[in-house]
Specification:
Radius of gyration: 17 Å
Low-confidence stretches: none
Number of domains: 1
Structural class: alpha/beta
Number of strands: 8
Order of helices and strands: EEEHEHEHEHHEHEHH
Largest sheet: 8 strands, mixed
Bound molecules: iron/sulfur cluster
Mean pLDDT: 97
Length: 241
Amino acid sequence: MLGRIHSLESFGTVDGPGIRFVVFLQGCPLRCLYCHNPDTWDPKQTGKYLLSPEELLAEVLRYKSFIAKGGVTVTGGEPLLQPEFLLEFFSLCKENSIHTALDTSGAISSQAVYKVLDVVDLVLLDVKSIDADQHKKLTGVRIDNTLHCLNYLEEKNIPVWIRHVIVPGWTDDDLLLEKTADYLAPYRCIEKVELLPYHNMGVRKYEQLGMEYRLENTPPLSKERLENARNIFRNAGLRVS
Ligand code: SF4
């Protein structure tokens, strides 16, 4: 079994606790309007590396002392497009006492996916929009599976960090932010929420790929609006970073 790996980053600091070895898997069924990694979308491309779970683990172990207080994060793309590979890789990490985190949209629902969730230490769940219509427009897919995924994580008591991008003209809306915070607040599995300000630094990649960037006229989120969103989530009782 070989994993199609878009790229690797040995010293990640923003994808989970501590210093992390970050694995970007190739392929994604979503088409988020603000995606910075459209080059990860095509599931047929192999990416930079084609590795077995054992080969990837060997790469990780080269950095074991650096990531001792952090761990490994697998992101994408949508990593759950390759659940068998992930299950094997995470199980090997576990055997080697390496903390694992999975960054996912939760958009894929299957038995194989749930098996992966059962072995991972932390899920970074990307909630793109709590509004069903907006979610479809923003990502191209329905929100249902993401919400099922969150329910499963709650049922199994698997730690979750929510990630939510605040996009002007889309998710940057007080009523919607309140609705989102109120929806998430009762979940005991959610340890914290990371509110990420929209920025348009991904535009160049679209130009290089000859693709249209559909949020071209959307300005980056201001510091004031980010703080406003943070306050709304804090007021709902959520821990915000
Ligand atoms: S889920 Fe992630 S990789 Fe996929 S389109 Fe959205 S932002 Fe891009």
